[in-house]
């Protein structure tokens, strides 16, 4: 094979990196999902746009964390990462299916992890790909299996939730405080991106504080709270935004967050497992449901 060149990602690379990411995850699903499952589908345009917006934002805040690999001037892989308050996070990582298993992923991960060399704590949301898992184990990560709950929500099952309200940019300081208490590092400018992409619900009472970002169909995207009761109330509030005819997913639930399983089961959702929360130098955050790439 020709020489592999690993170089910093540039803004003009981002749309191609998004397509590369979509292709590598589609092939992964085709390779690993049980045959009894519905056929894997292409990433829908709305999610692709969010990926591009998030990655352009990372290029502004963390240019040293974002890399591409080229062979004969053709992009064959990429890794994007960020550093927030001495925590390093791998945001996204992929190599074209026909170039996998030849060491390109290792070179990309090494380059991205250099960005976090001053960080004692590291986290990433790992796919079920044995190649990815092997890379992360060799890089010193511990794997925490993740559950997810899925199904439609019967509105008759929704409890009355008090002490929550719609959130806004004025809540970023509060959310950063909750992040520091739960995850050990604030999301800082990532909250501005999340606010543009999702709806926000906040709890700010003497009994507990927290927040949840959810998509238009009620699936939580990131949730943090100072106690389990507040976390459960916020999760119910996200589910209340769901359409009874559209599936919701409560994803990225580690064993440290049984309160989320309790809510999902009470909402009559089905429980499955998928992928890992990979951590170095820290325990699984709780009460917390991480974002897949901004963690
Ligand atoms: C994860 C990914 C980026 C790694 O890139 P890559 O170029 O394949 O990685 P590398 O070749 O450097 O490393 C793969 C490792 O897995 C091993 N491997 C290859 N095929 C394997 C298989 N079928 N099962 C288990 N291990 C395998 C390789 O030998 C190598 O280990 P080694 O360095 O000890 O020899 C790439 O496989 C990918 O895009 N996967 C699909 C998307 C994905 O899962 N992204 C990560 C999201 S968290």
Question: Please, could you describe this protein's structure?
Answer:
This protein is α+β, with helices and mostly antiparallel strands and 295 residues long. It has helices spanning 14-32, 45-61, 104-114, 130-138, 172-182, 190-197, 228-239, 258-266, and strands at residues 4-8, 67-71, 74-84, 87-95, 121-126, 142-151, 165-166, 199-205, 208-214, 220-225, 248-253, 270-280, 288-289. The strands form 2 sheets. The protein has an 8-stranded mixed sheet, sandwiched between helices. Strands 7-8-9-10-13 form a 5-stranded antiparallel sheet, sandwiched between helices. A hairpin with a 5-residue loop joins β9 and β10. α1 (14-32) packs across α2 (45-61). The model has no long low-confidence stretch (mean pLDDT 96).
Summarize this entry quickly.
By secondary structure, the protein is of the alpha+beta class. Helices cover 33% and strands 29% of the residues.
Give the SSE map.
Layout: E1 4-8, H1 14-32, H2 45-61, E2 67-71, E3 74-84, E4 87-95, H3 104-114, E5 121-126, H4 130-138, E6 142-151, E7 165-166, H5 172-182, H6 190-197, E8 199-205, E9 208-214, E10 220-225, H7 228-239, E11 248-253, H8 258-266, E12 270-280, E13 288-289
Parallel strand pairs: 4-5
Antiparallel strand pairs: 1-2, 2-3, 3-4, 5-12, 6-11, 6-12, 7-8, 8-9, 9-10, 10-13
Helix pairs in contact: 1-2
The structure holds coenzyme A (COA).
Coenzyme A binds next to helix 1, strand 4, helix 3 and helix 4.
């Amino acid at each position: 094979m020709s020489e592999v060149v690993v170089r910093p990602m540039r803004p003009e690379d981002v749309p191609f990196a998004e397509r590369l990411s979509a292709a590598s995850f589609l092939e992964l699903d085709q390779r690993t999902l049980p045959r009894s499952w519905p056929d894997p589908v292409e990433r829908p345009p709305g999610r692709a746009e969010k990926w591009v917006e998030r990655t352009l934002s990372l290029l502004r805040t963390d240019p040293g964390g974002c890399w591409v690999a080229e062979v004969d001037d053709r992009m064959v892989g990429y890794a994007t990462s960020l550093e927030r308050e001495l925590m390093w996070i791998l945001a996204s990582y992929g190599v074209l299916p026909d170039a996998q298993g030849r060491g390109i992923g290792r070179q990309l991960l090494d380059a991205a992890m250099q960005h976090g060399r001053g960080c004692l704590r590291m986290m990433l949301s790992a796919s079920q790909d044995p190649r990815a898992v092997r890379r992360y184990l060799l890089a010193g990560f511990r794997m925490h299996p993740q559950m997810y709950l899925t199904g439609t929500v019967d509105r008759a099952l929704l409890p009355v939730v008090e002490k929550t309200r719609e959130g806004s940019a004025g809540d970023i300081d509060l959310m950063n405080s909750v992040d520091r208490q739960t995850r050990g590092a604030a999301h800082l400018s990532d909250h501005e991106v999340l606010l543009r992409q999702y709806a926000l619900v906040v709890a700010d009472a003497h009994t507990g504080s927290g927040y949840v970002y959810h998509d238009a169909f009620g699936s939580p995207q990131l949730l943090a709270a100072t106690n389990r009761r507040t976390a459960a109330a916020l999760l119910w509030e996200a589910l209340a935004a769901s359409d009874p005819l559209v599936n919701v997913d409560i994803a990225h639930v580690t064993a440290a967050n049984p309160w989320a399983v309790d809510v999902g089961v009470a909402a009559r959702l089905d429980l499955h497992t998928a992928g890992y929360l990979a951590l170095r130098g820290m325990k699984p955050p709780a009460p917390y449901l991480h974002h897949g790439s901004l963690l």
